[in-house]
Amino acid sequence: MSTKLKNQLAQRAQSGNGQALTINQLAASATVKKRFEEMLGKKAAGFLSSVISIVNGNDQLKVCDPNKVLACAAIAASMDLPINPNLGLAYIVPYKGQPQFQMGYKGYIQLAMRSGQYQRIEVNEVYEGEFKVVNRFTGDFEINPEGRTSDKVVGYLGYFRLINGFEKYEYMTVEQVEAHAKRFSQSYGKGFSPWTTDFDAMAKKTVLKRLLSKYGILSIDMQMQTALIADQATPIEHDDGTMDYEYPDGVTLEAEYAVHDGEVSVAVPETRPQLTPEQ
């Protein structure tokens, strides 16, 4: 553990205000238990235990405001997504002293399939030589696996087919993904960034999110809308039940998604929308 983190932990322990409460103490409170039981039922205890384990096993999360950590956990709980790094569905990630809620690309697939509107949804790597035809007018792509000439990944392809037969593709080259990350993530290129530690997963999530935000069924699915907006955010809860989202990463990857009158659109808003329990 670094000296800086040790000092931050010591300051928290010496603090006399509410911030001194640990994640263990907050999670054990009747108010928190009730809140998560309302969302998860009998699964609440196990979910909170996993959150506690994740925080206690991460020195950087230990120094984050535990209220914000639990707010991140509540976003995942509201979508019934486990906070378990090994599953790749959703994460709580520390960044610049703030906890961030982060979706995994597998989490988006999970939400889409749960909606009952998707017959199939996939996102995969495309290797050099696999492209056979690209029709830019229809948005269709044909992949020829037998044409693969090397193990070099040249792009990522997302695809879904709805139960009504509508289908759509989204393709981005590796260069396009990198340009996108450089534009929307200030942490890109840094050693701790998920773009550095797991570029493949982040690239898949980028392509899948673009596909779903542009062509997916979102107006009737608040879980998917919440996932798009809350990803890579630190949630700030207010006494009146409303929630704001702060983005420690500055202009993040998710800055191109906004909600207007119940519809998710692609944009670069100056500020983020508020979501209330009624929306």
Task: Describe what you observe in this structure.
By secondary structure, the protein is an alpha+beta fold. It has eleven helices and eleven strands. It has helices at 3-14, 23-28, 30-40, 44-56, 59-62, 66-78, 105-114, 174-184, 194-197, 199-215, 222-230; strands spanning 90-95, 98-103, 118-127, 131-135, 140-143, 153-162, 167-173, 234-237, 243-246, 257-260, 263-266. The strands form five sheets. A three-stranded antiparallel sheet has the order 3-6-7. A hairpin with a 4-residue loop joins β6 (153-162) and β7. α3 packs across α4 and α7 (105-114) packs parallel to α10 (199-215). The N and C termini lie far apart (42 Å). Mean pLDDT is 79; it is low at 1-19 and 250-279.
Question: How would you summarize the topology of this molecule?
Answer:
Elements: H1 3-14, H2 23-28, H3 30-40, H4 44-56, H5 59-62, H6 66-78, E1 90-95, E2 98-103, H7 105-114, E3 118-127, E4 131-135, E5 140-143, E6 153-162, E7 167-173, H8 174-184, H9 194-197, H10 199-215, H11 222-230, E8 234-237, E9 243-246, E10 257-260, E11 263-266
Antiparallel strand pairs: 1-2, 3-6, 4-5, 6-7, 8-9, 10-11
Quick synopsis:
This protein is of the alpha+beta class and 279 residues long. It has eleven helices and eleven strands. A hairpin with a 4-residue loop joins strand 6 and strand 7.
